[in-house]
Each structure stands twice: as C-alpha cells, then as structure tokens.
Write a structure and sequence with these properties.
alpha+beta, Pseudouridine synthase, Archaeosine Trna-guanine Transglycosylase, Chain: A, domain 4, 3 domains, 7-stranded mixed β-sheet, 5-stranded mixed β-sheet, 18 strands, globular
Length: about 290
C-alpha cells in the first residue's frame, strides 16, 4: 500500500472532506504515517519538517538498484563487516553529511519523478544534498549478513542511501532489508493506530483518542497570543503589528522570517512569519 492509498482509506473511513499525509513512507517501509484531516492539511508540510526516527536492517553483500530488498541485484561482495568495524565508522555519519538520494525516489528531475525515469532505464544524475543525522546506533548483528540500526534524522534524509553509503565505507555492498519509521516529530509508533483497527472502528473512529486536535501538530512551533481584532485581521490575510514589548522582543529573538502560531484563547488562528515587529499570515486556519 502506498502512502496515498493509506490517506484515501482513512478519508473514506472517517468520511473526511480533505485529507493528506505528512511524509511519504518508502514502499518497503512500515510505521508512522501522520494523516491530517480538514484544516489540519494546512499544517502537514510543517510536520514533514520534523525530525524522524527509523529502525532499519541492512543486508550486507548485495547492492540493489532501488537500495532496498525490492530491487534488482546490481553488484555483490563477499566482504562482511564485523561489529567492531561497523561501530568504528558510524561516527563519520553523524551531524551534517552529504548523500546522493536513491535513483528510485520521488525527487523530480526536470519535472519528472526520478523513479519514473529509473523504471524507463533513462540516464540521469541524482544530485548530492546535505542532510542532518542526529543519532545513529548499531542495535545488533544477528548474523554475518545483517546488521540492525536505529537513526534519528532531519528532513530529506534517505535511510536507503545511508545504508548504501555505510556499506561502501565498510568495503562491501548493502541495501535496506527492513525499514520501520518509529516517529515523525511528536507522532510516534506507540501512539499510532493500525489501518485495520481504524477500519473496525468505522465512523466511531472520529471519537477515538488517536484523532487529535490540530494544535498538537503545532506544539513545536512558538506560540504568539493575539487579540480578537488581531485574529480578525490575520484571517483577512493582513499583517499585524505587535504592540507589546514582550512580543516585539520575541520576534527580534526568533529573527526575520521565523514561523509562529498565532493563537486566540489557546486556539490556532494562523501560521505566521515574523517581519520586523509585525507578523504576516502564511496559513489561515478556519477552526
């Protein structure tokens, strides 16, 4: 099932007018897929920016064209790293690193998805990009052919690329055999619900604790209290000058272009950006 198919299923079960997801899951992957409904779809792009956490298993000795177990074998190696060798190189993959995304990815090349070009066996170049790796740990080595890892990473990181590059650094080939997303920001696998369970709940799922308020997705964004008059102007798409010294200091501290959540009596009114001592709405939330 694709991420889009999962969204369609949730939309059907809950009879939602609008639905969208925050961060596509690889076809091979399982785990957390935050799904936004109604006005919350306006916040999905900000949830995507959150750090993500994955558990993954690398299969040593085989490179595949998709960098996961669903692709064709394109190279093999008899070399197998041991636990000490793996741990010795992991430090090279912390912090800001450069990686080349998989050819089979949703990145657009001249307006066309890379995976579509790859399936047509076209020749094209995937450009390297900088990504953030906050933590990377070796969990276990169940046998000489496999190693299990856990990673916390920033937006745009391809775990398939990470596995491939670790293998190359260790003098062998490798690909992802299993991949599970454990968290997207504050959304974790421990608080997720399976699509099958949601289906069994039917329309009563709308009253399930797994369906959480829109504001929850915005908890990591600085909040700014506004008056009813300010809220009305923001809803009309107008900029609002902040009058209090505390609010002006906050905007100065966060810096030009900083994203905030304007709230009226605790309820989200709009996502706004700082502009001097004023705020400008970028997403108005009709709640």
């Amino acid at each position: 099932m694709t991420s889009a198919q999962a969204v369609a299923a949730v939309r059907r079960i809950l009879d939602a007018a609008k639905a969208g997801h925050a961060g596509t899951l690889d076809p091979l992957a399982t785990g957390v897929l935050p799904i936004a409904l109604g006005e919350a779809t306006k916040t999905a792009s900000y949830v995507v920016d959150a750090h993500k956490e994955y558990a993954f298993t690398v299969r040593w000795g085989e490179a595949r064209d998709t960098d996961d177990g669903e692709g064709r074998v394109v190279a093999t190696s008899e070399a197998r790293p041991d636990e000490a060798q793996i741990r010795a190189v992991l430090g090279e993959f912390y912090g800001t690193i450069v990686q080349v995304p998989p050819a089979y990815s949703a990145i657009k090349i001249d307006g066309v998805r890379a995976y579509a070009r790859a399936r047509r066996e076209e020749t094209f170049e995937m450009l390297a990009r900088k990504v953030e790796i906050e933590s990377l740990d070796l969990v276990s080595c169940p046998d000489r052919d496999h190693a299990r890892f856990r990673v916390r990473c920033g937006k745009g990181t391809y775990v398939r690329s990470l596995a491939r590059d670790i293998a190359v650094r260790l003098g062998t080939h490798g690909h992802i055999q299993q991949l599970r997303r454990l968290a997207v920001g504050r959304f974790t696998v421990d608080t997720a619900i399976s699509l099958e369970s949601l289906e069994l709940l039917g329309h009563s799922a709308a009253h399930n604790p797994h369906l959480i308020p829109l504001e929850t997705a915005l908890d990591d964004i600085p909040a700014l209290a506004v008056s009813e008059d300010m809220a009305a102007r923001l809803r009309k798409g107008q900029a609002v000058e902040m009058g209090s010294a505390a609010d002006r200091f906050l905007l100065e501290r966060l810096g030009e272009g900083a994203l905030l959540c304007a709230r009226l009596d605790g309820r989200a009114v709009a996502l706004v950006k700082a502009s001097g001592h004023a705020i400008r709405p970028v997403r108005v939330l009709n709640l």
